[in-house]
Specification:
globular, Chloramphenicol Acetyltransferase, alpha+beta, eight-stranded mixed sheet
C-alpha cells in the first residue's frame, strides 16, 4: 500500500486530528500523523444511558429538556424493589395489557406528529403457560445496576411500505422469545429468573409509527429515544421497541430501542439481517420459524458454572491474573461515569489491508486490533494512559458457541480480562509492516486461543457460581476494553456504558472503513493524553495493515 493513508483521527463530527501514513517495509518508520492545530481537535460525549427501570411507577419524561441537558449517563435503580408485592406487580401488568395505547411521551403539541400503534400480533394457537429459564451471566451482572439501553437506527428504502416494515417486526418478535422475556421471582430462591410468557400474555405493543410530512421538521432522534426508553421494563417483558420514523413523502428510519438484558452485538446482527430479509419480502414473506436451542443453551451455561471443570478453570484464571503487575494509581475517588471520546476513521483501503493481515495468519480482525494495542503499549511505555490502564484488556466472549449457533437472540456475551504482551518482537520492523508484524499477530492469536472455553467460563464462574465469584472478583478485571463489530447497514446510536473502565475502545465497520472510538474517563485522562495514545495505536495498526497489504500482493 506504500504511503497510502490509513486513516484520520478527530471528533465524531469529523474534525481532523491528523493522518496516519506509513512506508513500505524497509523504509523509514517515521509517523506522519502530527496534529495540525490543537484547536482543531474536539472531544465528543459518547451516548451511553442506563435505562431507569421501576416496578412501582413509570419514569416521567421531561419534554422541556433538550439532549444537552442530559448527563452522558443516567443512573438506574435496581430491577426489583424488595418492597414490591407480586400481586401488585401482576395487577399493574394486567393494566398495561388492557391499555389501548403505549405511553409514548413527546411534545406532540409542538411538533404535531401523529403517533400510530401497530396492531399487536395475536397467535392463532397460543401456548397456555409461561416457560421459566435460568438467568444469563450478563443478566446477573445487571441486576444491581439496572438494564442498559442499546439503540440502533436503520434506514428504510423508499419502496418499502410501513405495512412491510410491520410485517418484518412481527417476524422478528415471533422468532425470538427472549425479546419477550420477563424477570420473575419464582419463589424458589431469592434471585429472579427469566420467564418467557405464554403467547396469550404477549400483549406489549412493540411497534410504533411516528409519521411526519415533507412540510414538517423531522423529530430529533434523541427525543424519540428518550421517550421510548422510559417504556422499557423487563419485569413486565417490555424489552424492545421498533419505532418507524418518517412517512410516505419523506425518508423513513427504523429506530430500535432495547435493553441490554436481551440484546448484545450478535443479537443486533441477527435482528438487522432478519428485518432486511422480512420487509423485502413484504406480504409474501415465509412463515416465521421459532428459534431453537434457547432453553438448552441456558441449561448448559447453568450446569457449566458449577460443573467439575469449574474448579480447574478458576485455577487458570488465578494463575494468569494474580501475577499481573498493578496498574498505576490515579482513578481512586474519580467519577468514571463522566465520559468523553476521541475518534479515528480508517479508510476502506486501510481496513481491507487489516482484514488481509488477519486472513494471512488465520486470525480475526479483533486479534489484529488487539495486536496493535499490544504494540502501542510498548511504543507508549511510561505515558499516562499506558501506565493507568495496565496490561489487562477486557475482551468479549460469546456463549452461543456452546449451543453451536450464532443466531440466538439474547444477551449471551460477557467480558473477560486477559493480560496482553509480546515477546522477542522487533517493534521497529513491525511498525513498517515487516516480518515481525506477522509474528506479533501470531503471538496474540495464540494468547487468545489459550483462554479456557474462549473466555465464556469466566462470566459463568463470576456471575452464576457464588462459590467461585469471590475468588474472581479479587483478581484484576481490566481497566481497558477492546471490541470490533460489523452492524452494517445499521448505525449505533446508543451503546452500553462502560462505567468501570478508564478506556473503552470500539471499532465499528462502516461503509467508509472503520470508525474507532476511544471513550475515556474524563476525570482521569485529558483529551490530549488519550489522543497521543490513539496515535500510537493507529501507527501500530498501520504497520500491521502494511504487512497485510504486502501479503495480499503476494
Amino acid at each position: 500500500m506504500g504511503s497510502a493513508e490509513l486513516g484520520h483521527a478527530g471528533s465524531v463530527e469529523g474534525d481532523r486530528l491528523g493522518s496516519a501514513e506509513y512506508e513500505p517495509a524497509g523504509s523509514a518508520s517515521e509517523y506522519a500523523g502530527s496534529v495540525d492545530t490543537p484547536a482543531a481537535f474536539e472531544y465528543d460525549y459518547p451516548t451511553t444511558i442506563l435505562v431507569p427501570v421501576r416496578v412501582d411507577a413509570s419514569v416521567p419524561v421531561d419534554d422541556s429538556a433538550t439532549i444537552d441537558d442530559l448527563p452522558p449517563t443516567v443512573e438506574a435503580p435496581a430491577l426489583f424493589d424488595d418492597e414490591d408485592d407480586e400481586t401488585e406487580v401482576a395487577d399493574r401488568a394486567s393494566e398495561v395489557a388492557e391499555s389501548e395505547h403505549v405511553a409514548f411521551s413527546i411534545d406532540t403539541a409542538a411538533h404535531d406528529y401523529p403517533f400510530e400503534l401497530a396492531v399487536p400480533h395475536r397467535p392463532e394457537e397460543p401456548d397456555d403457560s409461561p416457560i421459566p429459564l435460568s438467568l444469563t451471566p450478563n443478566a446477573v451482572r445487571l441486576l444491581d445496576s439496572g438494564a442498559e439501553l442499546r439503540v440502533i437506527t436503520l434506514d428504510i428504502p423508499p419502496s418499502f411500505s410501513p405495512e412491510a416494515v410491520q410485517f418484518a417486526v412481527d417476524t422478528v418478535l415471533e422468532q425470538h422469545p427472549m425479546l419477550w422475556v420477563r424477570l420473575h421471582r419464582s419463589g424458589v430462591g431469592p434471585d429472579p429468573v427469566f420467564e418467557i410468557p405464554a403467547e396469550v400474555q404477549r400483549l406489549d405493543e412493540a411497534f410504533l409509527e411516528l409519521e411526519y410530512t415533507a412540510d414538517q421538521t423531522p423529530p430529533p432522534l434523541d427525543d424519540v429515544v428518550r421517550a421510548v426508553a422510559t417504556e422499557l421494563d423487563p419485569v413486565h417483558g417490555r424489552n424492545i421497541r421498533f419505532v418507524l420514523v418518517g412517512g410516505r413523502e419523506v425518508p423513513s428510519t427504523m429506530v430500535v430501542v432495547a435493553n441490554g438484558l436481551v440484546v448484545d452485538d450478535t443479537s443486533w446482527r441477527t435482528i438487522i439481517d432478519k428485518l432486511s430479509l422480512a420487509w423485502s419480502r413484504g406480504r409474501h414473506r415465509t412463515p416465521a420459524v421459532l428459534e431453537s436451542g434457547l432453553s438448552d443453551l441456558l441449561g448448559v451455561l447453568s450446569e457449566r458454572a458449577s460443573g467439575p471443570a469449574a474448579i480447574e478453570e478458576v485455577a487458570w484464571w488465578h494463575h494468569t491474573l494474580s501475577v499481573v503487575p498493578a496498574a498505576a494509581a490515579g482513578a481512586t475517588g474519580k467519577n468514571l461515569r463522566s465520559r468523553r471520546r476521541v475518534s479515528l476513521t480508517i479508510t476502506t483501503e486501510g481496513t481491507a489491508a487489516v482484514v488481509a493481515a488477519a486472513a494471512a495468519h488465520g486470525a480475526s480482525v479483533d486479534e489484529v486490533l488487539l495486536t496493535a494495542l499490544a504494540i502501542a503499549r510498548i511504543t507508549s511505555a511510561g505515558e499516562t494512559v499506558t501506565d493507568a490502564i495496565g496490561p489487562v484488556v477486557r475482551l468479549l466472549a460469546d456463549s452461543r458457541g456452546m449451543a453451536e449457533t450464532d443466531t440466538l437472540v439474547g444477551a449471551f456475551t460477557t467480558a473477560y480480562p486477559l493480560p496482553i504482551g509480546l515477546e522477542g518482537i522487533d517493534i521497529e520492523e513491525a511498525l513498517v509492516g515487516g516480518y515481525a508484524a506477522g509474528i506479533a499477530i501470531q503471538q496474540i492469536k495464540r494468547l487468545t486461543g489459550a483462554v479456557p472455553s474462549y473466555g465464556v467460563g469466566y462470566g459463568l464462574l463470576r456471575y452464576l457460581n457464588p462459590d467461585t465469584a469471590a475468588a474472581l472478583n479479587a483478581l484484576p478485571v481490566g481497566r481497558c476494553a477492546l471490541r470490533y463489530r460489523d452492524l452494517r447497514p445499521a448505525q449505533v446510536h446508543t451503546d452500553e456504558p462502560a462505567t468501570d473502565l478508564l478506556l473503552d475502545i470500539t471499532a465499528d465497520a462502516t461503509a467508509d472503513g472503520l470508525l474507532v472510538r476511544f471513550d475515556y474517563a474524563a476525570e482521569v485522562f485529558g483529551g490530549d493524553e488519550v489522543k497521543t495514545f490513539a496515535e500510537h495505536w493507529i501507527r501500530a495498526l498501520g504497520g500491521l495493515a502494511e504487512h497485510g497489504q504486502q501479503v495480499r500482493a503476494g
